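Can anyone check this?
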Amino acid sequence: MNAEAIRELLVRRPFEPFEVRLTNGDVHLVKHPECAIITKARLVIADPEADRITICALLHVAAVSLIHPINA
């Protein structure tokens, strides 16, 4: 996964939350575009509810999946 592909997800309107799966199996949710910062080599994901910041090397991003709401 490259920086440009993730950047496109962050600027898409309307924004759709997505999850980032790393090569070690960890999964991180990006709920809002302001909760992520992308650089050339890293993705920083903030989870304000858990008061946590995760810094991921783009080399270790294995997949990105959109989170589609369940229609009731």
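Reply from J.R.: I decoded it. The first helix runs from residue 3 to 11.
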